[in-house]
Amino acid sequence: MKKLFIILFVVSTGLSVQSYAQETDMPTNKELRKARPNYISIGFGLNRGSVRDFATSPLTYKGTLFSFSGGYQRYDDLRDTRLNIRFNVGGYRYSRSEGIPTSSGATGYVLFVNYAKLYRLKRYSNNKWNFKVGGMLDVVTDVRINSQLLNAAVGYEVFNTLYASGKVTRTFVRSELKQKKFLFIKYKLRPRVAQLSYQLNLPVINGYARNGFAYLGNERIGEVPLFNGYQYKLFSGFRISSTLAYTRQMANGNMWRVAYIWDAYTSGGQQNRFEMAHHIAEFSLLFHLNKNKQL
Prior knowledge:
Helix content: 10-25%
CATH architecture: Beta Barrel
Shape: globular
Order of helices and strands: HHEEEEEEEEEEEEE
CATH superfamily: OPCA outer membrane adhesin/invasin
CATH class: Mainly Beta
Number of helices: 2
Number of strands: 13
CATH topology: Lipocalin
Radius of gyration: 27 Å
């Protein structure tokens, strides 16, 4: 009986020590945060946009804007945190050749500021597929200048949206150099790490600041009626956006990314409804800020 007690004591002690050793080998949340890769991004691209402002005209203006962006991103398989600023500048135009020829143009400026935080769904994720959910706050301000509209020459809106976001990522890893042959042509596939991702953002709360009907606040001469006659409405209008991106890691740990960004929104109301859409093709570079060179 005494021997049996000694054996059980030794076995239980060994299991406790092993369990403690395994727990101490697991990184803490603080260690995970510290090891999470950090990146600064710089991007440029083109935005094919369209806008319609029923307060001035039912016509749809379309044009191409230059897009410039910068941001900070901290992410790995477990968490994704991003702060991004994007500025677009260019022109919109409407023209009609049938009947009486008509043409009108406007200069447009658009500023996007968004912050997102996503968390991994462990149950559905693995080494190749990663599913994340979370939220994103996005504020967009657009300004349009069209001198042909006289007292309504300057129009501007501010939309702020709280999104529920979902993101799926497919990771492609080639760890060894591979030699291939197509017909009589030989080629090499070098080691690489790449990701293909798609993020969909659905509105939870949408609000906007918009002028009253017919831009009545712009009639005063010699004054700057910045928000004179403007109204802010919460839980009004609709907005939806998405991002499709391909990211490739370089040998030095930095990355490059090509992305297609779609963003469309509309205000409430009928007589003075506002509609705008953006189709942005963007190329960006991501510079890593720590020694961790893995995606």
